[in-house]
Amino acid sequence: MLAVGSQIRYRLAALFEAHWDAFVRSTKQWIRPVVFETVRKIVACRTPALGCHLYTCPQCGRLEVVPHSCKSRFCPACGKHATDRWAARVLNDLLDVPYHHLVLAVPAHLRGVLSFNRPGTLSLLFNAATAALTQWARDQHGMRLGIVAVLHTFGGDLKWHPHLHLLVTEGGLSLDGSRWVRPYGNGWLMAHGALKKMWRYHVIRALRQAHREGQLRFPRKAAFLAEYPLFNAMLRRLYEIVWFAHIGASLCDPRFTLGYIGRYTKRAVLAEYRITYYDAEKGLVRFAYRDYAQGGKTSYKTLPVLAFIGRLIRHIPDKHFKMVRYAGLFATRWRQHYLTHARAALGQDQPVPPVAEETPAPLLPWRERRLAEGKDPLQCPICRVPLQFVRLAFGAHEPIAELFRAAGKPLRPQHPAWDTG
Questions:
Q1: Assessment of whether the complete model's pTM goes beyond 0.90
Q2: For residue 368, which of 334, 419, 331, 311 has the smallest C-alpha distance?
Q3: N or C: which end of the chain has fewer CB within 10 A?
Q4: How many CA atoms lie within 13 A of 137 on its CB side?
Q5: Which candidate, 3, 6, 10, places its Cα nearest to that of 285?
């Protein structure tokens, strides 16, 4: 956790609202359509633009307005709730075995190629990582690993730095499904050197194939790489260097690591509390980040606000692109089959689905979150009776701004917890 406190002083929505038009006019680069769509959603989140639910107190007539959220996975408020739900769902499927946290990165020379050819080259990283691990497990130990892979496209200072975080089982299910194989034990997964070589081999092999099939494009300043001999020469040079691959210590409880690697899969790459300074007149933004080159200490970076926006939007994922992939025992298609055999081999109980009669009626997600904070948003604070739903207000024909004012609700949200998720 960065030592900058958790108080939110500046909001990304406000920065986008104030400077987005200027950024679009000033940039010379093509802006992906998904970026325009995402920025519009973030700026409109929990404002009259998206409408609201109206509730009233049956006794005193108090009007309560519940704004609608944008539900964008890049939104700091909406994405957090989606991340929490994802982590809880994955934890429910994980086997009760030790895990290892792996980090795989590519050399800086390839980052431009990955950026210019997204999302195909980013999917290539997933395929290369899972191919390396599954091939090693199958050929060396006759087993299937359980793999959860999460893509991060950013470094601490928001530069373009695509890399993969993986949560991998320490051991796996034998290929015939009869026993659990733990080849080394004692907190050992595999040798770092072997992983680095396999990762490098599978990425370079996939890039060569993609180039031969005409799937890669190159910017004007690197147009010479469109010639396969020149592109292959660059790859041969990259084959001579050591690629980054890290295997973390054995984890008996993967919850913290899963929360960490999933933290930015469904929300903005920069938590708003990390923005420590903003000057609209000078057009400057300062944010805190953990500098791993300096031993993980907290550092600060100041950027012109337009450059800051440019760095942020590079990390908005393409529409429908999966930032989380599952392989091996956790592969979506075969998950139930493999996990049933794995739990039997480990002597673990199969998860029991809740009985329908014992399951209470589900609460609205946003109400459930507020109840967890000790406050019921659908109870009149004066009469202490449940509020009654009146209607849904949405569209240009509705006087939504007037409804916000009548209910004492600010037109721009003041607290990140108040949204309908």
A1: no
A2: 419
A3: N
A4: 26
A5: 10
